[in-house]
Amino acid sequence: MNSPYRSTRALLLLCFPTLWFSRVVNGLGQEKAAFPQPTYEGVWAWKQRVARSSNTEDSNIQNATATDVQVSYRQDICHRYDQVRRGEIPLRDALIGLPLRPLMRVNKFFRYTDEEGIHPLDPGLMAVMMDELARRAGFTWRESFAVVHALPTKPVSFLTNETDDEGDALTFTDLLLWSVETHDLSINWWDRTLERLEGGASFMYPWFDGSIIMVRHMSDPVVDEGSIDLWNWLRPFDRGVWLMTSTTIIVSAIAYQWIEYLSGHGRGRTWWQWFLDNLYLSAINFPQNYEFEPKSFAGRLFGVSISLWALLMTATYTANLASLLVDTKTTTFVVESMDDAVTANIPLCVYENTGADAFVQQKYRQARRIPFDSELGTFQALQEGQCEITVAYYQNWLGFAQQKAYNPTCDLEWVGRTVKTIQSGFANAVDTGDKCTSLIGNVLDVYLNEMEETGFIEDMWDEHYAKSQDINCDAVSPEVLQAQSKQDAARKLVSQQQPRSFWKRHQHPTSQNRRELKAGAKSAAAAGATAGSVETDADASQMTLNQMAGTFVLHFWLMGSAIVIGYITRFYKKRGHHVEAWMSSSSERFMASFVPNKNDTAKTCHTTAPHHHNTTSTERPGDEESSGEQQQQQQQACLVAAAAATTPMTKRQRRRHNQEHLHDHHDAHESFDNDDEDELRQDLHETQQELSQTRRELQETRQDLKNQ
Length: 708
What we know:
By secondary structure, this protein is α/β, with parallel strands linked by helices. The chain has helices spanning 4-15, 42-52, 59-63, 78-85, 125-137, 172-182, 194-198, 239-262, 271-285, 297-325, 338-343, 355-363, 375-384, 394-400, 438-453, 456-468, 486-490, 511-514, 519-522, 537-541, 545-592, 598-613, 621-646, 651-661, 665-673, 677-707, and strands at residues 102-105, 112-113, 117-118, 146-148, 185-191, 201-203, 208-209, 212-217, 347-351, 368-372, 389-393, 412-420, 423-429.
């Protein structure tokens, strides 16, 4: 049959550098002749044995050739497929009486040794599942299986039988694609990936949750209940915030003093005493005891700014202090995803050449990857500090969490979100026309679904975890860990019962119910913190200067605006004083143009007297006397009015006069109120002198009138 699939299969057989021979127990009945027995150890193990053995006459060594690895042990079951297609037998009965030839990988789920064969008491999960499938479907497998051990570290060339140091190392994908081409089934927890699907592998109903997760140490805060913390009141803010707060208090005191100086307040005391008073007001404002009393607009804007700053600082301090004083067992995790770990350059332990390893290399090429040849090796490296995170499979982690070999101090925890959800299970070749191998997968899918629905798979996992558990992390106490370091003794694992089956993976604990995040961290991305570092609870909760920068910037911006407004007000106020002086002098000149001089007024009053004496001669003597008295009174009133008109205005009188003519009454009134006590006393003294001078002039005027 010349098909593209057949050509691809032949190409795969020629290109894979190393493949294993399988050890097969004698088959039953008529199937035995069609199933030859290759050597078990395979090409790689054979080359190692040749190197250390001096017995070159060994028949197994002489018969093992590179071409033997191309032998296929898949059976032709197309006659069964035709019976199902014609409806002669139901699909679920298509494998009855058929001895399947699976390739079993030796691991913790299939316990096998060359000397004893399959473990009689604990064969492993995969053997248990194969036995149950054989019972339900009616096939056999224990008399016709092959086994394969771990991957070799170096590939082997088919053509030369020599180690190829320049070739790529074999991967589990290579093993899978070869195994499905040469056997009826490949029994392992194979990850369902695109590369494997394109290579011709068909995956059955998953029984293993191969989701990729991250595991790391969990660090709880160490609380010493016997000690007294004298500095707990400093914990809400870090050092940078406290230094910036102290600087803000001092700068605010200086700024307020300068703003008040620009507005003309605060005179009558030394600058140092004035600064100390303002520093006190600024300091007590931090706990929201506002005592400033600004009178200018700029000062009031400053008051709004510093009161708002104090409100924000106090609210943040109170909330963070309250959260720190509450005694809760909260674990701070910064790594929330694989992207976080890669960005922080955290070393990752990975199981080499697995699907998880291939995924990390393909999607996270910049990852700091440290490969190991086993899952146990990755967890041991994590305990030894060679890496901070190990990349693990979810289903395996559920068992490892309760095993001393993997989690000896119960201090490991699954962190972050699931890196990738993967379905894992058995596999075979996609073949519907050559040997009809796909029929085997179709039949087993029916029974695997049935085993899931009846709860067999979940019960199987529960039993497996119970057998493998050798430590109860739920009951670990500090007394049990006294021999360890203080840091290790403080680490605890809050283990949770996880779903055992793949189809309950949606019940995985989410980030919300597995842990709490402190406000200062999340931000995970958080302000300069290294994601891979182990943080204490206090450090994770302290507000940093980057987080509080907005509060300080707002206050300094408003404070700067207040200072600018103060300068603008001072400039216009000085300009107003010049206008006031000009209007005062102009007013005096204007009034002088209408009020006559004192001497001119006196002359005018004197010249009127003869005019009144030269009246008509027809008046009687008595009338002349009364008329003379009236003239004398008029002349005296004229002189008094002239003296009052020519009397210079006092400083206070000029100010009041100018205030009536100025348009800006508020500025004039404020200027008047800003005069200090010395100026008022000097003004009063000048007024008294001017009044005395006026009295003397009036007395002189009266004396002149009497003399006349």
